[in-house]
Structures are given as C-alpha cells and as structure tokens.
Design brief:
single chain, alpha+beta, 7-stranded mixed sheet, 6 helices
C-alpha cells in the first residue's frame, strides 16, 4: 500500500462518505440573501486533473486569500518540530504520518462580497455527531458588522442538514456568538 493510500485509510474517520453528499456545493458560490454576500465551501483537491487547471488555480488563489485573512487575525502558528505554519497546513489540508499533524479533512468556508473575501472559518466533521471549527477570522475592515454571524448562520444550517449535533468552537468565538445549538 502506498503512502497516499495509507494516509487516506488512516484519515477516513474524518468526514464519512455519507456526510459528504450535502457538500456537493464545494467551490460553488451561493448567495446568502443579504446585500451582495455569498458563501462557498473550499477544499483542496489532491487529484486535480490537468483539464481543471483554471479551476484549481482559482481554488488555490482563494485559499491563499483565506490564509491572509486568518493571518490578519492571528500570528502564524509554527509547529516546533517541522517549523511549518499550522494555519496553512489546515487550510491546504496538508497530510503527515503523524496524526497530530495530519490536517486532511478540513473544509474552508468563506463569506464574500462580490469577489472580496470577508470572513473565513475552517471546519472538520469528525463523525455524524461532532464537528470542530478551530479557526475563524474576519477582515479588519468588516469586523463588528455581523459578518461572522452570517457565516456561522450558513455553516450551522449545513451542519444541521448533516445532522451534526455538537459544534466545537474556540473560546473566543464562543464568547462572541450566542450559544450554538444544532438541534
């Protein structure tokens, strides 16, 4: 079994195939219904075909902008052993033989106004009951305007459709948002 197959097998506990069906919107911009806002789910593709070069370039570009938004909010977090940026590893789904450094299975949910990225959240679904959102960030110019709440409203709706019951959030987000109940 090659390394990629081993990693895929080891990480299959994240986002079971039955949960992936509602995420068919990956890469598609969906209007929110407020102003010119839209949201998208992004996920790096390890198997991008050469014919998808333009779509893959756009995806990589959006993920790089999402990384810059998160870096506006947080200092880069360097992993002591590898010296890699953990935020970048999460957004780009970097894998590792070490389970603690294996970030495959994360999705990046973005909120945009026309083509400008406003807010970013990363989410990973662990099983049918629990999802985690370790990173959330909003551009400085858009803070205190309810953009994070709009993004979380969309994310909560999708997680409800997946019948996820519990959402794990960083302490800072828990303070800013009303108590999240997905039932």
């Amino acid at each position: 079994m090659n390394l990629r197959a081993k990693i895929k097998k080891k990480t299959s506990r994240h986002t079971p195939p039955s949960l992936l069906r509602p995420w068919k919107l990956i890469g598609k911009s969906v209007p929110v219904g407020v102003d010119n806002l839209s949201w998208s789910i992004l996920k790096p593709r390890k198997d991008a075909a050469p014919s998808d070069k333009e779509a893959d370039t756009e995806l990589q570009s959006k993920l790089n902008v999402a990384l810059s938004v998160i870096h506006e909010c947080f200092e880069p977090i360097k992993e002591p052993g590898t010296k890699t940026d953990l935020v970048q590893d999460v957004l780009f789904n970097n894998t590792s033989r070490l389970n603690r450094l294996n970030f495959w299975g994360f999705y990046t949910v973005i909120l945009e106004e026309e083509d400008e990225l406003i807010s970013v959240a990363t989410v990973r679904i662990h099983n049918e009951k629990v999802a985690e959102v370790p990173l959330v960030g909003t551009r400085l110019h858009y803070r205190y305007q309810g953009m994070c709440s709009i993004l979380f409203g969309v994310l909560e709706q999708k997680l409800r459709e997946l019948e996820v019951e519990r959402l794990l959030l960083p302490k800072e987000v828990e303070r800013l948002l009303p108590l999240v109940s997905l039932r």
